[in-house]
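Lecture 7 notes: from sequence to structure.

We start with a single chain of 277 residues. Read the sequence below before looking at the structure.
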Amino acid sequence: MKTKFLLASVALATLAACGGGGGGGIPFVPPDLTPPPPPPPPPPPPPSPAPPAPAPDNTSAVCFNEADLREGTTLVAEQDISSSAVPGEVLKMRLTTITGAREAFAGLNPVHQVRTQYFYSTNTEGTDRHYLDFVDGKVIRYGTRNGGDGTDPALGYTLNQPAIERPTMAPGQTIDESYVIVSISGPDGEIRHEQPVSGTVTYVGREALESPVGTTPACKFSSVSRIRQIDGSDLTQLQDSWIAAEGPYRGQMLKLVTKEGETVGTIVATQITYTPK
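Now the structure, written as tokens:
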């Protein structure tokens, strides 16, 4: 009898340990072996700020139009010329510039431009050839030759020694210039006279210029030149010039004001026809 009771007690204990017996004891819960979900991806980084707008190019670079040096480019500018020495009088002139091919000059091979100035009041004109180039960002002016294409070389020419170099300039920048204008003429190429020139050129910056051809963004330059004249005297000339910085006349002179002593002279373009190549 005791044996049966013991077996029954063991059976009940086993049943209770296994969770049976109608709710007696602590139920067995198997462990959850499912791996946890991966963590969510990190949020995307905020977009990079937009780069700052490039600073405007206010240098004098746009004041020179490289099309001026391409063969076949033409410029016709009607100009009014006045002087405080003759109040109320205005001379009218037409300047025609035609860019030709490169040709030999002073041992080099620069571009040449044929320039003709026609004065309406006297019905007269004069023609010469200018020699210039654009090298390493610099406008270089070598000199002039009297007469147009095919003219007798004995008519003479002038050399800038050294050649005048005008680099790209920042607003407010001033450069020094010093050269000698050597005049040569005659069949033997004799030096007739030499004129030393020295001074400074300042790129003032950009400004809107109102003129007969409209209101135009322009580059303004101010210069001081000291010139030794043929008679040995010295002449000091102040100049303010405005060159078109934008539009169909870019690179062309809109206005020039000179001052020698108390005399002020002005050249202003009243009409410009520019045909670049």
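Residues 1-29 have pLDDT under 50 and may be disordered. Keep this in mind for problem set 3.
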